[in-house]
Specification:
0% strand, 8 helices, mainly alpha
Length: 191
């Protein structure tokens, strides 16, 4: 992928934080029994069902918090800028600056490429776990709600937000691969 395209792709990446916030608004908030008059059957859940749902929600909230605080998108934006800077230094034949940028991208505490790859994998695993818990809780609720309430609940756009999170994870994985390939190519040109 060309550096210009890569930069546009990185800049066009939707915010995971906003997507998680939308998911919380559209899915988490409506299933709180004391705040939703549209789903009165939630108050009729057994104590065992409530405990199971609350346990899963606690894990879900932790994962959602981790996803909201993820800095992967910001790191990818830094990488795209530094790769362009590295390409420009190659054109200027400034080997010293190119070596400094490459070293920075590989060994910096914040922009360490191997750590970013790990961060992308953790993000993807958190999205998968969040999706699984979402599915389990939704199935539990659908079994407890009346047909009318289940339809009302499933008409909310939470599936769209969940799919968007999954798309962000896939896109991050693809972008970090492209960033790595471009970094290798540019570093080899400067050697």
């Amino acid at each position: 992928m060309e550096l210009r395209e890569l930069k546009k792709e990185v800049q066009g990446l939707p915010s995971a934080s906003q997507t998680v916030a939308s998911l919380q608004q559209e899915w988490l908030r409506p299933i709180r029994s004391n705040s939703n008059p549209e789903l009165p059957s939630l108050k009729d859940l057994s104590e065992e069902q409530r405990k199971e749902i609350n346990d899963k929600l606690q894990i879900w909230r932790r994962l959602a918090g981790d996803l909201q605080s993820s800095a992967v998108s910001q790191k990818l934006q830094h990488y795209s800028r530094y790769l362009i800077e590295l390409a420009l230094t190659s054109l200027r034949s400034d080997g010293k600056k190119a070596k400094m940028i490459t070293n920075h991208l590989l060994n910096d505490d914040y922009l360490n490429l191997s750590q970013t790859i790990t961060d992308v994998q953790v993000f993807e695993n958190n999205v998968k776990a969040l999706s699984q818990i979402h599915k389990e809780i939704t199935e539990l609720l659908n079994g407890s709600l009346s047909l009318e309430e289940a339809v009302l609940f499933m008409d909310k756009p939470h599936q769209k937000h969940l799919q968007q999170l999954q798309d962000i994870a896939e896109k991050q994985k693809s972008l970090v691969k492209d960033i790595g390939a471009n970094l290798i190519k540019l570093a080899a040109e400067d050697s």
